[in-house]
Write a structure and sequence with these properties.
The chain is α/β, with parallel strands linked by helices and about 425 residues long. The chain has one domain: TIM Barrel. The protein contains 13 helices and 14 strands. Strands 3, 4, 5, 13 and 14 form a 5-stranded parallel sheet that branches. Strands 6-7-10-9 form a 4-stranded mixed sheet, sandwiched between helices.
């Protein structure tokens, strides 16, 4: 991924993220190849899937950068749990600023997902579809036109990213947004108004909907989705500015937000959005728990140095993997709260955090009653459930299984299901 800022000059932005308990990708985050043995090293990216429309129907949108091609393939229809049934264990793997760079990590984790019956959420940064020669088209709130803390892209980077977005969606994955310029700390998104957020969201949409015009690649295949309908959720840069973002997101029809920090408990709604926050999980060998994000493990282990002590890097990756697995086990054998994991396509500390995620996907996604899904699929499932049951699930503490057993705990006289939800009980006349 080409960027206009060098990593060495981006530590100010990185440091601003530390106190926020958040993930932050900065600078030329994909300009160098992965370390030997890291996922994506020496691995050829799979050929991008074509974008044929179901039933051979395709309706181009705008300049043809996007298109309506019918219902998304491989998107399961949510079903309401039957009375007395234990809820499945949901796990969401998500990626901030998703773009395909020289390390080929986007294509790598698409392959990992396919191998493990998983789908994921890719939060695209809009500026990754904007060539640096057109940078002035971006008018970031409270910043000068054409500025960005993560740079912009080149033609090859945009082509590669579009290929991955196209294939990812056709495989059932979700394309969300990580907005654009990734401004954190003083003068950043934490100071934005509702109107600022609406402007930023509108621009993120426009860069996706006009990438052909902005790049001149008018003969390329479109993205096979209507982004206005696809975009239903986000994670804010450095987990900042959540209050005003949620107000803007609610007005714009979003359905969830994953910009908060919470314990491993069942989600509820906040400001009309599902609160699918990042979570704190056990951190082996440490007193405090850790946020389920690669960046936070790095800061705890090597500070703001993205490549710390080489003798410790493998151990640090093992710590992250073991932390995620302990968090999974605590939920799987306890309250079954969905596990939310967030990452970046980075080779911090020798690529060992990418290895940790890779190993976690392989370890958990094939277990009985586990569903590795996107945020969209999780929100769809939550919407389909009996509100009384969801409210009951929120009474369970971290790692707490029902004392009377799941069958008794989940038995109730259910409320009528939303119209059309499979498995819903008949409404009495």
């Amino acid at each position: 991924m080409a960027a206009t800022k060098q990593l060495a000059t981006s530590f100010t932005a990185v440091a601003a993220c530390v106190a926020a308990l958040s993930g932050c990708a900065t600078g030329d985050h994909q300009a160098t190849g992965p370390q030997k043995g890291a996922p994506g090293a020496n691995e050829a990216a799979p050929a991008p899937a074509p974008a044929p429309a179901p039933g051979h129907v395709m309706r181009l949108i705008g300049d043809g950068s996007t298109a309506f091609t019918g219902s998304q393939p491989h998107l399961p229809r949510p079903e309401r749990l039957k009375s007395g049934r234990k809820p499945p264990q949901f796990v969401v793997f998500s990626w901030d600023g998703a773009g395909e760079g020289s390390q080929k990590l986007f294509s790598h984790f698409r392959k990992v997902a396919r191998q493990n019956n998983a789908t994921m959420t890719y939060f695209l940064s809009g500026v990754y579809l904007l060539p640096k020669e057109k940078r002035d088209l971006y008018r970031p709130p409270q910043h000068s036109p054409g500025s960005s803390d993560i740079g912009f892209n080149d033609e090859q980077g945009i082509k590669d990213t579009v290929d991955q977005l196209r294939g990812a969606w056709l495989e059932g994955n979700e394309i969300g947004t990580h907005f654009n310029g990734h401004f954190c700390g003083k003068g950043g998104v934490g100071e934005w108004s509702v109107a600022d957020w609406k402007s930023e969201i509108g621009q993120a949409r426009s860069f996706v909907k006009s990438w052909k015009t902005n790049t001149g690649m008018k003969n390329a295949a479109p993205l096979p989705f209507d982004y206005d309908k696809e975009l239903i959720g986000a994670r804010t840069p450095c987990l900042e500015g959540q209050k005003n973002f949620r107000r803007a997101a609610h007005d714009l029809g979003f359905r969830y937000d994953t910009s908060g920090v919470n314990d491993q408990i069942w989600p509820n709604e906040n400001d009309g959005l599902w609160d699918l926050s990042m979570q704190l999980v056990p951190f082996p060998g440490h007193k405090a728990e850790q946020l389920t994000m690669d960046y936070n493990f790095m800061v705890d282990q090597s500070g703001t140095a993205p490549q710390g002590d080489t003798d410790k890097q493998q151990f640090w990756g093992d710590e992250m993997r073991d932390s995620l697995l302990q968090g999974f086990d605590r939920a799987y054998n306890g309250n079954r709260a969905p596990l939310v994991i967030g990452n970046h396509f980075e080779s911090w500390n020798g690529g060992n955090y990418m290895r940790a995620v890779d190993e976690t996907v392989h370890a958990v996604c094939n277990k009985p009653e586990v569903r590795c899904v996107s945020f969209r699929q999780l929100a769809d499932w939550l919407d389909a459930q009996d509100p009384q049951i969801l409210k009951r699930l929120t009474t369970l503490g971290v790692g707490e299984a029902p004392a009377q057993g799941w069958a008794s705990f989940m038995s109730t006289s259910p409320a009528p299901a939303p119209k059309g939800v499979p498995g819903a009980p008949a409404v009495k006349q």
